[in-house]
């Protein structure tokens, strides 16, 4: 994955600067023209005594490619792992996994082979190509050697990245993580960039499971802002030396004095292990490598471990804080998911033009269908909150104009015979048989089934789209037939108690659904309870507390443009206090009292923070912590957005 050789060129330059001679400088690159240029570039740079570069043109996951490099591991493996989504691998995912397993079998032995094999066999099939590429790069590092990577910041927040986090904890000592801030080092990057430097542990050290590890080290987490840069270097203003990068590298390992535009903090790997144990503890590979590790106590007293406090909030809590009072939303009886995905919004979404008391409603179809106006039965459409632009009206009590076509109770005339043949299925399921669509609606559905959407060879009518074809279901004894124009039944995640945008530009803000809930689109993460103990208002108020908003900001992923990505996977690991039923009822009572917004917020913050710090904590101390949390929330948001404009 050597590309044009930018990183290898930089290594060569750094070696020459310190008078080191490279005995080998190798790379693998899959694209022939790129590999040829990479080798030409490195040969041109080679000086007297330097080894000739070996650039293998081939697939890094193909045994034939790394055969040419031999089995000897490297002092340094440096790369920018390719980010290719699993959907774009075009059937190569299994080949990649087999190649990774073969490399582990051939190049490793003992406990190292067992670890890499378990991780290679167990990483998620939804993982992008960077995960196996990271695993492959790491196995070529000798004990004591270093792994250096340029990676998207999502390696710590994606669920499928847990194998990488485990690999680094088990087999490496992470030394440095360097993070860019807005506007970022790469103008086209959608997320922040991290530089990760890790030293490979000895075979004896990595043989010890993490659950048996007695000592943990900290890494340095360094944030580099645009203020640190000058015209020639990303750190030129912070280190106005002849060689700013060399000065920065020296400071990273030994310096502590403040530098312009650079923040530094310790990164606790004991806390990282606790977090990983909470998120990955139920995975098969984890159970294989850490038998019993999921249920280890957090403290010697035997108290069960709750989800860890995000590092950005940890210093706000008193030293005697007991983490066992924390739990996940799921442990509190709250579920997190994603709103409605129709598979083709251009067909299923329309816009209500005007309401009336009649049995029909006029809607405007998508521009793909000429923005035609169509009269449809009122019960064939449902309001849906689709975009963030509709939130302000929603807060002011206005139902969104967007509607979703809900044709589960309607069929085309040509499908009537199939519905009649399934009469018994409707009876068993307790569902009324569908009615035939009015003529105008039936004509639109037929037209949509024939009209290609998109451009060129990829153009397909809606009924042939992969996400819509799955709507079709043959009749079964307790399941009536479903046709392509019928969405599956709406579930609690589509009709939630509360919801939050998945992409946030300001601070996280959770919105309540109505008592008679409307459909929420997949642009939002959604929340709903196990039972009726929570009202939509009390759930939204809880999630908008100082603690929860700061935690959301801390667990989300900052994006390249300064926004925050807040997915269900983030929210499921967010630590929240174990609220008693009495506390939940108290939140509901406060919401129902309709006090001023400020008094309501203060009362709810006190309820939640009292559950964290104990019932004997004074109201003044609770209020101070709430203000500290709001301040930290503001600071984190400002850091995320810094320079984005």
Automatic annotation (TrEMBL):
Pfam families the UniProt entry points to: M_Eco57I_C
Domain of life from the UniProt record: Bacteria
Catalyzed chemical reaction(s): a 2'-deoxyadenosine in DNA + S-adenosyl-L-methionine = an N(6)-methyl-2'-deoxyadenosine in DNA + S-adenosyl-L-homocysteine + H(+)
Extent of the signal sequence: none
Claim: Ubl conjugation is one of the keywords in the record: no
Source organism per UniProt: Jhaorihella thermophila
E.C. no: 2.1.1.72
Keyword annotations of the record: Methyltransferase, S-adenosyl-L-methionine, Transferase
Protein's name in the database: site-specific DNA-methyltransferase (adenine-specific)
InterPro entries in the record: DNA_methylase_N6_adenine_CS (IPR002052), M_Eco57I_C (IPR054520), N4_N6_ade-DNA_methylase (IPR050953), SAM-dependent_MTases_sf (IPR029063)
GO biological process: methylation
Keyword Secreted in record: no
SUPFAM superfamilies given in the database record: S-adenosyl-L-methionine-dependent methyltransferases
């Amino acid at each position: 994955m050597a590309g044009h050789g930018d990183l290898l060129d930089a290594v060569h330059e750094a070696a020459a600067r310190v008078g080191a001679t490279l005995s080998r400088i190798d790379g693998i690159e899959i694209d022939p023209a790129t590999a040829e240029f990479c080798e030409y570039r490195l040969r041109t740079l080679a000086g007297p005594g330097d080894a000739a570069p070996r650039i293998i043109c081939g697939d890094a996951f193909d045994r034939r490619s790394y055969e040419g490099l031999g089995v000897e591991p490297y002092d340094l493996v440096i790369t920018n792992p390719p980010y290719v989504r699993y959907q774009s691998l075009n059937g190569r995912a299994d080949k990649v996994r087999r190649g990774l397993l073969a490399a582990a079998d051939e190049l490793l032995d003992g406990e190292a082979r067992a670890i890499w094999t378990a991780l290679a066999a167990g990483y998620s099939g939804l993982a992008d190509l960077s995960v196996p590429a990271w695993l492959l790069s790491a196995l070529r590092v000798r004990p004591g050697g270093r792994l250096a990577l340029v990676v998207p910041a999502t390696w710590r927040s994606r669920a499928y990245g847990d194998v990488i986090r485990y690999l680094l904890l088990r087999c490496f000592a992470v030394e440095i993580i360097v993070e860019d801030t807005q506007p970022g080092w790469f103008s086209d990057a959608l997320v922040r960039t991290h530089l990760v430097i890790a030293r490979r542990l000895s075979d004896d050290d990595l043989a010890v499971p993490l659950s048996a590890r007695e000592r943990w080290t900290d890494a340095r987490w360094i944030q580099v802002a645009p203020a640190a840069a000058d015209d020639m270097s990303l750190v030129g203003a912070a280190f106005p030396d002849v060689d700013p990068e060399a000065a920065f590298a020296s400071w990273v390992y030994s310096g502590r004095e403040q530098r312009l535009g650079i923040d530094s903090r310790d990164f606790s790997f004991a806390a990282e292990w606790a977090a990983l144990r909470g998120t990955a503890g139920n995975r098969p590979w984890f159970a294989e490598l850490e038998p019993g590790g999921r249920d280890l106590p957090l403290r010697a007293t035997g108290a069960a471990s709750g989800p860890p406090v995000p590092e950005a909030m940890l210093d706000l809590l008193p030293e005697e804080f007991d983490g066992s009072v924390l739990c996940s939303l799921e442990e509190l009886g709250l579920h997190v998911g994603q709103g409605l995905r129709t598979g083709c919004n251009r067909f299923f979404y329309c816009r209500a033009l005007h309401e009336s008391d009649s049995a029909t409603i006029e809607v405007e179809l998508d521009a793909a269908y000429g923005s035609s106006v169509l009269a449809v039965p009122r019960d064939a459409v449902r309001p849906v909150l689709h975009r963030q632009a509709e939130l302000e009206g929603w807060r002011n009590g206005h139902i969104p104009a967007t509607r979703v076509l809900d044709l589960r109770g309607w069929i085309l005339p040509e499908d009537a015979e199939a519905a009649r043949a399934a009469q018994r299925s409707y009876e068993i399921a307790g569902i009324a048989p569908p009615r035939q669509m009015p003529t105008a609606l039936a004509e639109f559905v037929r037209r949509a089934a024939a009209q290609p959407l998109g451009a060129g060879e990829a153009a397909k009518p809606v009924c042939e789209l992969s996400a819509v074809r799955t709507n079709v279901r043959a009749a079964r004894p307790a399941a009536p037939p479903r046709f392509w124009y019928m969405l599956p039944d709406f579930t609690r995640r589509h009709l939630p108690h509360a919801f939050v945008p998945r992409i946030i530009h300001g601070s996280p803000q959770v919105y309540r659904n109505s008592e008679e809930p409307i459909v929420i689109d997949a642009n939002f993460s959604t929340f709903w309870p196990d039972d009726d103990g929570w009202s939509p208002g009390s759930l939204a108020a809880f999630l908008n507390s100082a603690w929860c908003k700061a935690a959301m900001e801390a667990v989300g992923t900052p994006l390249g443009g300064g926004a925050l990505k807040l997915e269900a996977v983030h929210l499921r690991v967010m630590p929240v206090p174990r609220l008693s039923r009495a506390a939940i009822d108290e939140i509901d009572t406060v919401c129902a009292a309709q006090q001023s917004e400020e008094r309501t917020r203060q009362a709810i913050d006190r309820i939640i923070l009292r559950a964290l710090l104990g019932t004997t904590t004074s109201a003044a101390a609770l209020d101070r912590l709430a203000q500290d949390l709001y301040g930290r929330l503001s600071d984190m948001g400002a850091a995320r957005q810094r320079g984005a404009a």
